[in-house]
Amino acid sequence: MAKQAGYIKLEGTMGDLTFYKNRDGKFIARRKGGVTKKRIQNDPKYQRTRENLIEFAESAASAKFLKNAFREIELKSNGGKLHNRLYSMVMKVVKTDTVNVRGERKFDQGDLSLMVGFQFSEKAVLNNVVKVKPTILDEAGSFSVTIPELVPSKYLLYSQGSTFYRFSLIRAGIDFAQQDYTSEIATIEPLPIQNVMAPAVTLTLPKPAIEGEKYFFALALEFFLDVNGDKYDLNDLAQNPAAILSVS
Fold first, then answer.
1. Number of neighbouring beta carbons within 10 Å of residue 199
2. Structural domain of residue 14, as residue ranges?
3. How many domains does the chain have?
4. Are 223 and 162 in contact (CB under 8 A)?
5. Is residue 230 assigned to a domain?
6. Residue 206 domain-assigned?
7. This prediction's pTM
8. CB within 8 Å of 29: residues ≥ 6 apart
9. Do 130 and 223 have their domain in common?
């Protein structure tokens, strides 16, 4: 694989070379060739390859499904590489499945606790932006998170131009076998970023305990710009942190 140089950037196929633009915006050139699809599907030598491809597909589908379940966060907290980072983490979980044989391992039967701490934005990490430690209460029927009282201008690492902030707790209830999900959000009204102590914030959501569902809880922080009393989302979504706090 080689990078294209020069002023003219090519996309498409020319002879045995393929030119394309990758996810990072770089123009790449590579030579066509390799093992045929038919051989990979049938040759015993490629049994491990087939197993890997099946689990890659499982990971990609689960990552996409999880991202859709957290659509509320995806729209407001995304550093630009969310899907790739989520896919990489899901793949790690798939490999911890001790129930199914290699090539048939599933995300929801792996160690889902590995997802705890996952940051939706690689540029805005929650515990770097919020300089106080939230308190978590994870019970059988509900999940709560409390952000202690703080002075917003001192204990929030906010982007330039931000004048208000808001915490939200999002629950994604996912049934991977049935390919179905529900989501619910608990939030507050936007609070001003000022040099005055703000009260503690407690957000709580229930666990419906529906058979087959796995529950993912994530805490999100948004920053807003106030214009004549109206709150506007910042254009740079990478400034809004969000992280998965619990899976049950």
1. 10
2. 1-33
3. 2
4. yes
5. yes
6. yes
7. 0.82
8. 1, 2, 3, 4, 10, 17, 18, 19
9. yes
